[in-house]
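Backbone geometry tokens:
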Amino acid sequence: MFWKSENIKVAVVDHQRIFRQLLEVFFKKSSEFELVGGFGCGASFIESLRNGSCEIPEIAIIDFDLPEASGKELTLTLKTLFPKIKVIVLSMRHYGYVIAEMIDSGVASFLEKSCGVEEFRLALQSVAKTGYYLNEQILTTMREIGNSDRRSKMNNTDGITIRETEVLEYICEELTNAEIAERLHLSVRTVDGHRKNLLLKTNSRNTAGLVMYAVKNNFVKV
């Protein structure tokens, strides 16, 4: 098992009360995760984080179709005020442009509300460890978007070096900075520097964005 030994702290933001309560039951029964709060809207979540009534979670589970402020708006607000919170968005929609837009906004994962419990648990574990979880369906969708843009690794103009390409490929294999450093015989600080350079060169907000970039531009195969 690769997740952290201490419980992963999570919060749920979903306007559908029954769905939110089902997730709360799931987390309360779990020995891997600790629920720090359940909220019906983004405003109450942000206010609770600001006034300290809710502990800052490692992961926030957010409904895409929030009524007052959308999942995208809430994600952007969190990335500004609480950038360390990793966001998993749940949605009934699974259109390619919606997924791409949300990952560009900084989410760590995008899941259909119809996904199974095991995939949901895997997504949480993966996001906690690597900072992202993108299933095969999403990766295939991103590849199709990349092909439609006619962009490829061969005509890459973002100035990504050979070493950065190696780091990017290992990131896509879900390796941590320490694991990448060991594979490439580098220091963790050097790998972290390459990761930061990749974020800047690809205009990505987080690791999920890097993976999406790699898939769209044929750095890795689905």
Remarks:
- DSSP finds ten helices and five strands in the chain.
